[in-house]
Amino acid sequence: MSGRGKKHKNAIQLSLMVALSLLVQALSLYKSHFTAVKFGATEFMDAYNYAFSIAIFVFSFVTSGITTVIVPSYVKKEKPEVINSFITLIYSAVLLLVGMILLFRFPLLRMLTANSDSFNQMVGDWLFITFFIQGVTAFLAVTTAYFQCIDHFLVPKLVLLFVNLGVTAAMVSGMIQSLHSYLLLQSVASVVSFVFDVGICVALGFRYHPQFQWKNPETQRLLLLFVPILFSSGIYKISTFIDTTIAARLPEGRLTILSYATHVINMVNNVVVGNLTVYIYPKIVRRLDQEDHKKYFWDYQILFHAIIVMLAAGFFTVGRECLALIFGGGKFSPADTRTLFILVCIYMFGQQLNVLRDLIYRYFYAQSDTKTPVKNSLLVSAVNISVSIVLAKMIGVYGIIIGTVVASLVSFARITWQMKMKFGLGVRFSGVLIEFLKTLMAFGTSVGSVFLLRSYVSIHNRLLTIGVFGTATAAVFILVLVVTRSKVFHVKLS
Questions:
Q1: Which run of H or of E encompasses 81?
Q2: What is the residue-averaged pLDDT of the chain?
Q3: I need a surface site. Which of 74, 108, 205, 374 has the fewest CB within 10 A?
């Protein structure tokens, strides 16, 4: 395939990934709309969200590390028994941890939440089903890694789309009238996703059976690579979980509103950041032996930053209307929606730092250096937890989000400095900063211009408001980038 043809194929593949993710996340947002309108922001929903946060905490920090380690293993075509042993050992350890948590769940909950006995009882009862849902889903980190390495990025997205369509159809039909039936529906959906994902993966050549070659030097090497990643991602997950635990001690409903804010941000991460990272990480690994790989890396940093900041600008101008459409009505009050909007604005603006930091972490992992990100995460998590605890006492749930953003700034600054010391940046960083400043200038100009426009032009239809002012925000943002001659338009998707 010619260079131009390959570039065209890559652009189409990435666009399809983003489009499929948008559809999946739109359906996922409908689920949030359903629970918000049906059940509101109550102690009942706080318990449901906390049970899920525990299950997600236990499984997600392990699965993120699994993908990071086995993607290079599949790319380098390491021995199957080595990869199988690694997967078996890691998931066996997680299942053992789950068993211990379930056994001692009530003493653990009393220590963590300092909440009512009824709250802890609900969380404890729902932990069984939330662990089941997340446990079944967790293995798909392995199949996702395999799909990435054989350039079948779209398969897991399609499976997830069709499963979510089924879930949405069940909710629209009126079958789901209680939170218990909603949890049962999610359980069925996780099993269906597992069956289809694994089935397609096997048809494309994937093979796995449990092996325990823990004495194999290659297996031990993968485990040694995994442990620092476990601590790195695990530390971040711990700080996130502590944020949720702090919210569980705040007045009723705050934990649920925080979980919806996190859901909106996760949608951005899954649709944009996740797809771009999944797409580019194998390419970083393959390109390490080329002289221009650092320039390639920083070009993508500039692109990622511009995309996230443009989304933030759009949310600042029309986010209130978007959230009112998704969460407004039913048992979710206008005051809850207003609080949610402010939280997501803070979160969204801070995401620019997270995407830059995460890609630098990937560069360290590709260089087989997993210890440096761990040390960075330790410091940053300490900052996050400390600032969040202090600010939460002063300004409530808003302090939790501000603490996260402050920690993200410290994290990005420190890991960039460590990259410079260890590998060199390969570019003039002042030039990269200028590009970031151009993007922030576009943010300020577009948001300010549209706010001014909205003071003169009033539109009473929410969808029309989102369409008109959202388009105006994007247009002004892009115009500023064009006028300032941003490098964003010259980044190659190859």
A1: helix 80-103
A2: 82
A3: 205
